[in-house]
């Protein structure tokens, strides 16, 4: 009885095309060269339990805030401030405060911080441009975010160009604002 069941199972398997695995096809066609002399050794590995330390991961927003703080510090020119040790502010001989160093090659501490804030605002404008693309079906919201992003980029570009023009001596800031 047992022999008959195995024969029917074998017949059913042979009737289905492609039902045998590659190993079964190979084993049936190629005889084993060494016969029963060489066997594959069975190795039992000990089961070891490793202790896993679970460290809570911070939120993604906390990581992004950390990256922005790092970028802000790098944009202020922290390496320049540590290396050169410039003064925080300057003054003219008559006592009026100067916020922009008169040379292109040097800067005050406050100047680096202001430039960094402006660059940070420009990068926020670019992020707003990206956010505007997410409001595909709300045209008014997308347009508001898009305009706000473009304005932020344009205003910061103009402010940075003004700072460079004052530093280069092309514009006198006291004549501009009266």
Short description:
This protein has 178 residues and is mainly alpha-helical. The protein is built from seven helices and two strands.
How does this model look, in words?
With 178 residues, the chain is mainly alpha-helical. The chain has a domain at 60-172. It is built from 7 helices and 2 strands; from the N terminus they run ααααββααα. It has a two-stranded antiparallel sheet. Strand 1 and strand 2 form a beta hairpin. It is elongated and about 105 Å long. The protein starts with a helix and ends with a helix.
Q: Which spans of ≥5 residues are poorly predicted at pLDDT below 50?
A: none
Note the run of SSEs as H and E. HHHHEEHHH
| Measured distance between first and last alpha carbons | 112 Å
Structural class: mainly alpha
Count of DSSP-assigned helices: 7
For the sheet with most strands, the description reads:
2 strands, antiparallel
Give helix % range: 55-70%
Find the count of extended strands (DSSP E, 2+ residues): 2
Q: Strand order, biggest sheet?
A: 1-2
What is the overall silhouette?
Answer: elongated
Radius of gyration using CA atoms only: 37 Å
Average pLDDT number: 78
Instruction: Tell me the strand percentage band.
Output: under 5%
Keywords, separated by commas or semicolons:
mainly alpha; 7 helices; 2 strands; 178 residues
SSE topology sketch:
Elements: H1 2-15, H2 22-29, H3 60-75, H4 78-84, E1 90-91, E2 97-98, H5 109-132, H6 139-168, H7 173-176
Antiparallel strand pairs: 1-2
